[in-house]
Amino acid sequence: MNATSPEAAPASGTGPDAAAPGRIVLLTTSHRVAPGLLSWPAWQALHAADRVLCADGAHPQLPYLREAGISVDETSPTAEELVAACADGATVVVVATGEGEPALTDGLARLAGSGRVTMPELELLPASYDLPGARLLDLVQVMDRIRAECPWSSRQTHEGLAKYGIEEAYELVEAIEDGDRDELREELGDVLLQVVFHARIAEEHPDTPFSVDDVAGGIVTKLIHRHPHVFGDETATTPDEVKEHWLRTKAVEKRRESVTDGIPLGQPGLALASKLASRVRTAGLDVPLPTGDGMGYDLLALAIRAEASGVDPEAALRAAARAYRDAVRAAEGLADQHRS
Q1: Which residues are CB-neighbours of 256 under 8 A, at least 6 positions away?
Q2: What pTM was estimated for this model as a whole?
Q3: Closest CA to 258 of 237, 285, 232
Q4: Tens of pLDDT along 293-302?
Q5: Residue 94's beta-bridge partner residues?
Q6: How far apart are CA 142 and CA 145, in angstroms?
Q7: Segment 112-146, tens digit of pLDDT
Q8: How far is residue 76 CA from its own chain's centroid?
Q9: How many of the other CB atoms lie within 10 Å of CB of 313?
């Protein structure tokens, strides 16, 4: 490497005839991956380094690094000290703490921007990566702490939280209908919170406890079993064939006598009528509509006709109701003010 100019004087400990300015490797790890499970490039960098530094003596990776024969100095160098440690082409690996060493990286950036120091080669090397869904582990940990330490959350029960599950589900539907992506992401999180909260409460049951892992394991098993065209030898090329697989395997699992078994009667009326009609149609049953006086029977007929046409009557009525809401606001002179 060419000697530096007087305007870019080398850092203390590096001479103008140095073969190379050295190398700093900032090694990052994920706390969501078991300690010691590092990538091969990370192990290569660690074994080849002249020095390995870590500011956190309790870093979960340190026992595994030392077991692998890597000497780690527990120190927190400044940017200037770290650059000096790379004199004569030395390679220094910094095992980053959970915060990612912002003070150190900011200091290195200032030195590089000053133009007065010959900087070592800088490399950010992720040693372990989060898998998809890794942040769910954070949610479980946060929920566990809240359940233990929050005066309100620690007293909640399944029964007490039930109303919030219903509210959050409706807010999710509204976000979908509004087409607001930010709101959709937030409402999905609120629904997910209900699942994790209930699972955390369930761990404390004295007789039949279960955890969020049991919940996830159960739905994984169910999905695999009900998708034999994906995980098994059966085939399905249309959505209707997929639905047939689903209903057939579900009927075997639940051992239901009637196609109406398992339909929650507490759901909104139009949704209930549509679900019943869907089950009847899929089963190929010929069921005459009940007759009677009153608007309920007219609404039932409309809901069944909508379902047969591929229309969700509940969603259709909500859309019409929202249009009616807008008309009301227009009559009030509030047409230009959006309200979700």
Answers
A1: 262
A2: 0.67
A3: 285
A4: 889 999 999 9
A5: 26, 53
A6: 5
A7: 888 888 899 999 999 998 888 989 999 999 999 99
A8: 33
A9: 23
